[in-house]
Design brief:
By secondary structure, the chain is of the alpha/beta class. It has six helices and seven strands; from the N terminus they run βαβαβαβαββααβ. The longest helix has 21 residues. The two termini are about 15 Å apart.
């Protein structure tokens, strides 16, 4: 059950990844009172802003300002209050021990029950693969008593979920968790429409939500599910019963 005791950490490689791939799920958690923290690791200036670079006289700083404004509008539409933009370079992203330690601190600060980030394979975007590994490694370190971070006690094991990648069939993605987002679907659509640099993805992820909604109905028998998002699991489900 989603409630005020639930902590969710979302780690997005680029400016809009969290909206395309999990905007509905995030908005649902916010709506039902969960504590949601978002860390965006880069603005996606180099590799995620192609349309913006068609503007005459464009510069990296100008692109960054546009992406910043888009993020601000989108996160308000979804309802996110806790957000950090780490402003690393993209294409290609690199993570040294200092950056890894920063993510360890973030995990220990948030104390997430769930972490949503990029899954382990994206055939078209090495940044996403790199971030997936980065978050996984930081999560492992965050639960180790031998990894000392002053002021941040050891975290408990969080459940890790991977975004559905673009072109999932080519990336060997199979949905292991499907989340109904029908009640907040329009929020996701509004947030997607904010990102002008990747207009082609708006229709793509609108269609994807409908398709996953069909899968949600078929797998559950619940005909109220109209729109959904899919995720992979880093770890098996563990519980007292089959659910």
């Amino acid at each position: 059950m989603i409630d005020k005791s639930m902590n969710l950490l979302v780690v997005s490689a680029h400016a809009a990844d969290f909206v395309w791939r999990a905007g509905g799920t995030i908005a649902k958690y916010v709506k039902h009172g969960a504590n949601v923290a978002l860390a965006i690791l880069s603005y996606g200036v180099r590799g995620e802003s192609n349309d913006l670079w068609n503007i005459e006289g464009q510069t990296g700083e100008k692109v960054k300002k546009i992406r910043q404004s888009e993020i601000e509008v989108a996160r308000k539409l979804i309802g996110i209050e806790s957000i950090e933009i780490w402003d690393y370079n993209d294409y290609f992203m690199e993570f040294n021990p200092e950056r890894r330690d920063r993510m360890v601190r973030k995990i220990r600060q948030v104390k997430p029950h769930h972490i949503i980030t990029h899954g382990p394979k994206d055939a078209f975007n090495p940044d996403h693969d790199c971030v997936s590994r980065f978050v996984f490694e930081a999560s492992v370190l965050s639960i180790s008593n031998g990894v000392r971070t002053e002021g941040y006690p050891t975290a408990k094991q969080a459940r890790l979920f991977g975004f559905e990648p673009h072109q999932p069939e080519i990336c060997d993605f199979k949905p292991e968790v499907i989340i109904d987002i029908t009640e907040i679907y329009e929020q996701k659509v509004s947030a997607m429409q904010v990102f002008k640099a990747q207009k082609q993805l708006i229709d793509y992820y609108t269609d994807r939500a409908k398709m996953r909604g069909n899968h949600a109905r078929r797998c559950s028998g619940n005909n109220q599910y109209q729109y959904a998002e899919a995720f992979s699991r880093f770890f098996p489900y563990v519980g007292d019963e089959l659910v």
